[in-house]
Amino acid sequence: MSAMSRAIRAFGGGGASRRNLSVAASKEAPALAAAAGLVAGRKAGRRDPGEDGSRVQWVFLGCPGVGKGTYAGRLSRLLGVPHIATGDLVRDALASQDPLSKQLAEIVNHGKLVSDEIIINLLSKRLEEGEEKGELGFILDGFPRTIRQAEILEGVMDIDLVINLKLREEALLAKCIGRRKCSQCGGNFNVASIDIEGENGAPRMYMPPLLPPPQCESKLITRADDTEEVVKERLRVYHDLCEPVEDFYRARGKLLEFNLPGGIPESWPKLLQALNIEDPDNKRSAAA
Protein backbone atom coordinates (compact mmCIF):
# COMPACT_ATOMS: atom_id res chain seq x y z
CA MET A 1 0.00 0.00 0.00
CA SER A 2 1.29 3.47 -0.88
CA ALA A 3 2.22 6.10 1.69
CA MET A 4 -0.63 8.26 0.41
CA SER A 5 -3.18 5.46 0.77
CA ARG A 6 -1.95 4.57 4.26
CA ALA A 7 -2.21 8.17 5.40
CA ILE A 8 -5.68 8.74 3.96
CA ARG A 9 -6.99 5.51 5.44
CA ALA A 10 -5.40 6.29 8.78
CA PHE A 11 -6.92 9.77 8.80
CA GLY A 12 -10.28 8.29 7.83
CA GLY A 13 -10.54 6.33 11.08
CA GLY A 14 -13.54 7.18 13.22
CA GLY A 15 -11.43 8.37 16.14
CA ALA A 16 -9.28 10.86 14.23
CA SER A 17 -9.30 14.27 15.89
CA ARG A 18 -8.11 17.63 14.55
CA ARG A 19 -4.97 17.32 16.72
CA ASN A 20 -4.27 13.78 15.49
CA LEU A 21 -4.73 14.92 11.89
CA SER A 22 -2.19 17.69 12.40
CA VAL A 23 0.39 15.40 14.01
CA ALA A 24 -0.06 12.64 11.45
CA ALA A 25 0.13 15.07 8.54
CA SER A 26 3.46 16.48 9.73
CA LYS A 27 4.94 12.98 9.85
CA GLU A 28 3.52 11.72 6.57
CA ALA A 29 3.82 14.81 4.33
CA PRO A 30 7.35 14.12 2.98
CA ALA A 31 6.55 10.50 2.19
CA LEU A 32 3.28 11.52 0.53
CA ALA A 33 5.04 14.11 -1.60
CA ALA A 34 7.65 11.62 -2.76
CA ALA A 35 5.14 8.87 -3.42
CA ALA A 36 2.84 11.06 -5.49
CA GLY A 37 5.58 12.91 -7.36
CA LEU A 38 4.58 16.19 -5.75
CA VAL A 39 6.68 18.94 -4.21
CA ALA A 40 5.86 19.44 -0.55
CA GLY A 41 5.39 22.91 0.88
CA ARG A 42 4.56 24.78 -2.34
CA LYS A 43 3.06 28.18 -2.00
CA ALA A 44 -0.73 27.89 -2.27
CA GLY A 45 -2.56 29.74 -5.01
CA ARG A 46 -3.02 29.81 -8.77
CA ARG A 47 -0.11 28.86 -10.98
CA ASP A 48 0.46 28.60 -14.70
CA PRO A 49 -0.76 25.07 -15.43
CA GLY A 50 0.09 22.68 -18.23
CA GLU A 51 3.89 22.73 -18.21
CA ASP A 52 4.09 19.77 -15.87
CA GLY A 53 1.24 17.52 -14.71
CA SER A 54 2.49 17.71 -11.14
CA ARG A 55 1.78 21.46 -11.15
CA VAL A 56 -2.00 20.84 -11.20
CA GLN A 57 -3.56 19.77 -7.91
CA TRP A 58 -7.11 21.00 -8.18
CA VAL A 59 -10.52 20.28 -6.67
CA PHE A 60 -13.94 20.87 -8.24
CA LEU A 61 -16.87 21.76 -5.96
CA GLY A 62 -20.51 22.33 -6.84
CA CYS A 63 -24.05 21.01 -6.42
CA PRO A 64 -25.01 17.63 -7.90
CA GLY A 65 -25.64 18.03 -11.63
CA VAL A 66 -23.85 21.38 -11.99
CA GLY A 67 -21.35 19.95 -14.47
CA LYS A 68 -18.29 19.19 -12.35
CA GLY A 69 -17.55 16.04 -14.34
CA THR A 70 -17.95 17.78 -17.70
CA TYR A 71 -15.62 20.69 -16.98
CA ALA A 72 -13.14 18.74 -14.86
CA GLY A 73 -12.93 16.14 -17.64
CA ARG A 74 -12.24 18.79 -20.28
CA LEU A 75 -9.53 20.38 -18.15
CA SER A 76 -8.06 16.94 -17.46
CA ARG A 77 -7.64 16.29 -21.18
CA LEU A 78 -6.35 19.81 -21.86
CA LEU A 79 -3.77 19.77 -19.05
CA GLY A 80 -2.82 16.11 -19.24
CA VAL A 81 -3.66 15.14 -15.65
CA PRO A 82 -6.10 12.49 -14.39
CA HIS A 83 -9.69 13.42 -13.58
CA ILE A 84 -10.66 11.49 -10.45
CA ALA A 85 -14.40 11.63 -9.83
CA THR A 86 -15.63 10.03 -6.64
CA GLY A 87 -19.07 9.71 -8.25
CA ASP A 88 -17.53 7.45 -10.90
CA LEU A 89 -15.72 5.49 -8.20
CA VAL A 90 -19.04 4.92 -6.44
CA ARG A 91 -20.82 3.91 -9.68
CA ASP A 92 -18.02 1.48 -10.54
CA ALA A 93 -18.37 -0.06 -7.09
CA LEU A 94 -22.15 -0.26 -7.57
CA ALA A 95 -21.68 -2.19 -10.81
CA SER A 96 -19.23 -4.61 -9.26
CA GLN A 97 -19.92 -7.86 -7.46
CA ASP A 98 -18.34 -6.45 -4.32
CA PRO A 99 -20.41 -6.91 -1.12
CA LEU A 100 -20.29 -3.11 -0.79
CA SER A 101 -22.49 -2.65 -3.88
CA LYS A 102 -25.78 -3.49 -2.12
CA GLN A 103 -25.05 -1.04 0.71
CA LEU A 104 -24.13 1.68 -1.80
CA ALA A 105 -27.32 1.10 -3.84
CA GLU A 106 -29.48 1.67 -0.76
CA ILE A 107 -27.65 4.92 0.04
CA VAL A 108 -27.55 6.37 -3.49
CA ASN A 109 -31.14 5.50 -4.47
CA HIS A 110 -32.43 7.47 -1.48
CA GLY A 111 -30.40 10.57 -2.29
CA LYS A 112 -28.14 10.26 0.74
CA LEU A 113 -24.41 10.98 0.90
CA VAL A 114 -22.05 8.02 0.94
CA SER A 115 -20.12 7.84 4.22
CA ASP A 116 -16.65 9.31 4.62
CA GLU A 117 -15.23 5.86 5.32
CA ILE A 118 -16.50 4.39 2.03
CA ILE A 119 -15.44 7.39 -0.06
CA ILE A 120 -11.98 7.52 1.50
CA ASN A 121 -11.43 3.80 0.91
CA LEU A 122 -12.49 4.10 -2.75
CA LEU A 123 -10.33 7.19 -3.27
CA SER A 124 -7.25 5.74 -1.58
CA LYS A 125 -7.51 2.66 -3.82
CA ARG A 126 -7.72 4.88 -6.93
CA LEU A 127 -4.74 6.98 -5.80
CA GLU A 128 -2.72 3.83 -5.18
CA GLU A 129 -3.49 2.56 -8.69
CA GLY A 130 -2.54 5.95 -10.16
CA GLU A 131 0.71 6.01 -8.25
CA GLU A 132 1.63 2.61 -9.71
CA LYS A 133 0.98 4.04 -13.20
CA GLY A 134 3.21 7.06 -12.52
CA GLU A 135 0.43 9.66 -12.59
CA LEU A 136 1.45 13.21 -11.65
CA GLY A 137 -1.09 15.74 -10.47
CA PHE A 138 -4.87 15.36 -10.43
CA ILE A 139 -8.23 17.06 -10.67
CA LEU A 140 -10.54 15.81 -7.91
CA ASP A 141 -14.28 15.91 -8.54
CA GLY A 142 -16.70 15.17 -5.69
CA PHE A 143 -14.16 15.13 -2.87
CA PRO A 144 -14.02 16.67 -0.33
CA ARG A 145 -17.74 17.03 0.44
CA THR A 146 -17.48 17.64 4.18
CA ILE A 147 -15.24 19.63 6.52
CA ARG A 148 -13.83 16.37 7.86
CA GLN A 149 -12.87 15.25 4.36
CA ALA A 150 -11.35 18.67 3.63
CA GLU A 151 -9.22 18.40 6.77
CA ILE A 152 -8.07 14.92 5.74
CA LEU A 153 -7.10 16.16 2.29
CA GLU A 154 -5.40 19.26 3.69
CA GLY A 155 -3.33 17.03 5.95
CA VAL A 156 -1.90 14.81 3.21
CA MET A 157 -1.47 17.02 0.13
CA ASP A 158 -1.19 20.62 -1.03
CA ILE A 159 -4.28 21.66 -2.99
CA ASP A 160 -3.49 24.58 -5.31
CA LEU A 161 -6.94 25.67 -6.43
CA VAL A 162 -10.58 24.87 -5.66
CA ILE A 163 -13.05 25.67 -8.45
CA ASN A 164 -16.61 26.13 -7.20
CA LEU A 165 -19.13 25.84 -10.05
CA LYS A 166 -22.49 27.53 -9.44
CA LEU A 167 -25.77 27.35 -11.33
CA ARG A 168 -29.35 28.46 -10.60
CA GLU A 169 -31.23 25.73 -8.76
CA GLU A 170 -34.11 25.50 -11.24
CA ALA A 171 -31.58 24.85 -14.00
CA LEU A 172 -29.81 22.27 -11.83
CA LEU A 173 -33.06 20.40 -11.23
CA ALA A 174 -33.93 20.33 -14.94
CA LYS A 175 -30.41 19.21 -15.86
CA CYS A 176 -30.42 16.29 -13.41
CA ILE A 177 -33.86 15.05 -14.43
CA GLY A 178 -32.89 15.29 -18.10
CA ARG A 179 -29.71 13.22 -17.85
CA ARG A 180 -29.57 10.04 -19.94
CA LYS A 181 -26.92 7.43 -20.66
CA CYS A 182 -26.60 5.04 -23.60
CA SER A 183 -26.67 1.48 -22.30
CA GLN A 184 -24.57 0.32 -25.24
CA CYS A 185 -21.81 2.88 -25.82
CA GLY A 186 -21.85 4.51 -22.36
CA GLY A 187 -22.26 8.02 -23.79
CA ASN A 188 -23.82 10.73 -21.60
CA PHE A 189 -26.63 12.91 -22.98
CA ASN A 190 -29.28 15.33 -21.72
CA VAL A 191 -32.79 15.76 -23.09
CA ALA A 192 -33.58 18.91 -21.10
CA SER A 193 -34.00 22.21 -22.96
CA ILE A 194 -33.44 24.95 -20.38
CA ASP A 195 -34.64 28.47 -21.13
CA ILE A 196 -34.92 30.70 -18.03
CA GLU A 197 -35.61 34.42 -17.74
CA GLY A 198 -32.80 36.40 -16.13
CA GLU A 199 -33.24 37.87 -12.66
CA ASN A 200 -32.38 41.42 -11.55
CA GLY A 201 -31.14 42.44 -14.97
CA ALA A 202 -29.16 39.24 -15.56
CA PRO A 203 -29.20 37.83 -19.10
CA ARG A 204 -31.53 35.00 -20.06
CA MET A 205 -30.07 31.52 -19.48
CA TYR A 206 -30.36 29.07 -22.33
CA MET A 207 -28.91 25.56 -22.22
CA PRO A 208 -29.81 23.44 -25.26
CA PRO A 209 -30.28 19.68 -24.94
CA LEU A 210 -27.38 17.35 -25.67
CA LEU A 211 -29.23 14.81 -27.78
CA PRO A 212 -27.90 11.35 -28.68
CA PRO A 213 -27.11 10.19 -32.21
CA PRO A 214 -29.79 8.05 -33.90
CA GLN A 215 -28.09 4.76 -33.01
CA CYS A 216 -28.34 5.57 -29.29
CA GLU A 217 -31.90 6.94 -29.13
CA SER A 218 -33.56 3.59 -28.32
CA LYS A 219 -30.90 2.62 -25.79
CA LEU A 220 -31.10 5.56 -23.40
CA ILE A 221 -31.45 4.83 -19.69
CA THR A 222 -32.05 7.11 -16.70
CA ARG A 223 -30.04 6.86 -13.50
CA ALA A 224 -32.12 5.54 -10.60
CA ASP A 225 -31.29 8.64 -8.54
CA ASP A 226 -32.28 11.16 -11.23
CA THR A 227 -35.88 11.68 -10.10
CA GLU A 228 -37.24 15.04 -8.94
CA GLU A 229 -37.73 13.86 -5.36
CA VAL A 230 -34.23 12.38 -5.05
CA VAL A 231 -32.53 15.32 -6.80
CA LYS A 232 -34.21 17.83 -4.47
CA GLU A 233 -33.05 15.79 -1.49
CA ARG A 234 -29.50 15.66 -2.85
CA LEU A 235 -29.49 19.44 -3.27
CA ARG A 236 -30.79 19.92 0.28
CA VAL A 237 -28.10 17.61 1.66
CA TYR A 238 -25.45 19.45 -0.35
CA HIS A 239 -26.45 22.85 1.00
CA ASP A 240 -26.50 21.54 4.57
CA LEU A 241 -23.18 19.68 4.54
CA CYS A 242 -21.06 20.88 1.64
CA GLU A 243 -21.37 24.66 1.70
CA PRO A 244 -19.13 24.82 4.80
CA VAL A 245 -16.41 23.24 2.62
CA GLU A 246 -16.63 26.30 0.37
CA ASP A 247 -16.04 28.48 3.43
CA PHE A 248 -13.11 26.24 4.43
CA TYR A 249 -11.27 26.92 1.16
CA ARG A 250 -12.45 30.52 0.88
CA ALA A 251 -10.77 31.27 4.21
CA ARG A 252 -7.53 29.80 2.82
CA GLY A 253 -7.64 31.92 -0.32
CA LYS A 254 -7.94 28.90 -2.61
CA LEU A 255 -11.56 29.21 -3.79
CA LEU A 256 -12.45 30.39 -7.29
CA GLU A 257 -16.22 30.83 -7.63
CA PHE A 258 -17.52 30.53 -11.18
CA ASN A 259 -21.16 31.15 -12.11
CA LEU A 260 -22.02 29.16 -15.20
CA PRO A 261 -23.66 31.58 -17.66
CA GLY A 262 -25.23 28.87 -19.82
CA GLY A 263 -24.31 25.72 -21.70
CA ILE A 264 -20.87 24.42 -22.63
CA PRO A 265 -20.28 26.64 -25.71
CA GLU A 266 -20.83 29.76 -23.61
CA SER A 267 -19.34 28.62 -20.29
CA TRP A 268 -16.19 26.76 -21.39
CA PRO A 269 -14.24 29.70 -22.88
CA LYS A 270 -15.20 31.92 -19.94
CA LEU A 271 -13.99 29.29 -17.48
CA LEU A 272 -10.69 29.03 -19.32
CA GLN A 273 -10.38 32.81 -19.17
CA ALA A 274 -11.05 32.77 -15.41
CA LEU A 275 -8.32 30.14 -15.01
CA ASN A 276 -5.90 32.00 -17.28
CA ILE A 277 -5.63 28.96 -19.58
CA GLU A 278 -5.37 28.98 -23.36
CA ASP A 279 -6.93 26.16 -25.37
CA PRO A 280 -5.28 25.91 -28.82
CA ASP A 281 -8.35 24.07 -30.08
CA ASN A 282 -10.92 26.13 -28.20
CA LYS A 283 -13.50 26.45 -30.95
CA ARG A 284 -13.75 22.73 -31.56
CA SER A 285 -13.71 21.70 -27.89
CA ALA A 286 -16.35 24.28 -26.94
CA ALA A 287 -18.75 23.06 -29.59
CA ALA A 288 -18.19 19.35 -28.89
From TrEMBL:
Keywords of the record: Kinase, Nucleotide-binding, Transferase
Entry's EC annotation: 2.7.4.3
GO terms of molecular function: AMP kinase activity; ATP binding
Domain of life: Eukaryota
Transmembrane parts of this sequence: none
One Pfam family cited in the UniProt record for this chain: ADK
PROSITE patterns (UniProt xref): ADENYLATE_KINASE
InterPro entries: Adenyl_kin_sub, Adenylat/UMP-CMP_kin, Adenylat_kinase_CS, P-loop_NTPase
Catalytic reaction(s) noted: AMP + ATP = 2 ADP
Keyword Transferase attributed: yes
Role played: Catalyzes the reversible transfer of the terminal phosphate group between ATP and AMP. Plays an important role in cellular energy homeostasis and in adenine nucleotide metabolism.
Family, per entry: Belongs to the adenylate kinase family.
This protein's name: adenylate kinase
Naturally occurring in which organism (per UniProt): Lolium multiflorum
